[in-house]
Amino acid sequence: RRLQSSNQGTFGVLDTPLGFRAVTAELPWRDNASNLSCIPAGEYAAQWTYSPRFRRMMYVLLETTPREGIRIHPANLAGDVLKGLKTNVLGCIGLGQRFGFLSGQRAILSSAPTVLAFEAHMEHEPFRLRIQ
Fold it and tell me: Quick one: which of 92, 97, 78, 85 has its CA closest to 131?
């Protein structure tokens, strides 16, 4: 569930049916522009695949045409770079344990351990992600 969006990012909460909860960070909505925008709300298949960019296995969202390579990975910041803010995502979804601030910018915190816990929780199995 996306809760709030501003130039500092789109922040929300991810819940699974089996009780896993994380906070999320995505780029602000910028008309689905590659590397500048979050993807549209909707339902997407997620699959466990190797990422050449990150050099490790991680989840990728499918059915994101014309975008591709939308992954779930560690990230803290998701600001609009055209507004001078920092980001760790180029359209992907960052997971964290809680909301906070880094260098005066809205952020999610404890991201890397949260992503590892999510991947273990999902047992590297495919799933459907509904973004609303």
Answer: 92
